[in-house]
Amino acid sequence: MEKIYDILTACPLFRGMDYGMIEQVLKHDDISVSEFGAGDVIAKKDMAYSGLMVVLSGAAEGIFTYPSGQRSAIETLSPGELIAPAFLFGGYNRLPVDVVACEPTRIMTLHRGLLFELMQENTLILSNFIDIISNRAGVWQKRIYALSYKTLREKMASYLLDHTQDGSTQVPVPDITEIADYFSATRSSVATVMEGLQKRHIIEVDGDTIRIVNRHALEDILK
């Protein structure tokens, strides 16, 4: 039980709450925990979303399926993270993607009515939920902005610039499949773009790090 408390104290919905406060939340009947095996569908696209799901262990992915049948991983969620919180309330509370377990995964679900009650009783939970929704809006704004670029080279330039805004010139190298899924592109096309940027001495790939050599050249790609 302590492990669950450790996970939930790190969960953005319960940020600032101690074990005792979280214990009071977990006593409610409108909370359930379900287990899923690797590859199991946790929730299907367009399913009515009546309870906020929290990853307790394992990992889950949001999978979007294009009309062509191509599937793309939109996001990977780790323990303590929430599944689609922005779609819990409002007139259209249906999931926009399939949610699939990447490995054996446990999911805790808080019924929508219970969450609404908790937000009325505890301003900290209300404040945390508002912050979560606001932060998610910011993430999707950046994603939409990146997708507005037409070429993969422009999208890659935007990705690298966005991940080095604090003055750092280095970006950890994610798996190339992850980058390809992020841009709905093929692994080979992503590799080709990265090789082209290296040949022009705009970036350097050194082990598990991408180092930006010429930031102005990246910015020029987006003009």
* Number of H- or I-type helical stretches: 8
Our estimate of the beta-strand percent is 15-25%
The main pleated sheet reads as: 4 strands, antiparallel
Distance between the termini: 53 Å
Q: Structural class, judged by helices and strands?
A: alpha+beta
**What share of the residues lie within helices?**
25-40%
> What integer is the average pLDDT?
84
Low-confidence stretches: none
Widest sheet: strand ordering: 1-8-3-6
Radius of gyration: 20 Å
Name the quaternary structure: single chain
Give the tally of β-strands.
11
Shape: elongated
Write down the secondary-structure element order: HHEEEEEEEEHHHEHHEEH
Break the fold down into its secondary structure elements and pairings.
Elements: H1 2-9, H2 19-26, E1 31-36, E2 41-43, E3 51-57, E4 60-65, E5 71-77, E6 82-83, E7 98-101, E8 105-111, H3 112-121, H4 123-147, H5 152-162, E9 170-172, H6 176-182, H7 187-199, E10 203-206, E11 209-212, H8 215-221
Antiparallel strand pairs: 1-8, 2-7, 3-6, 3-8, 4-5, 4-7, 9-11, 10-11
Helix pairs in contact: 3-4, 5-8, 6-7
What does this entry show, briefly?
By secondary structure, the protein is of the alpha+beta class.
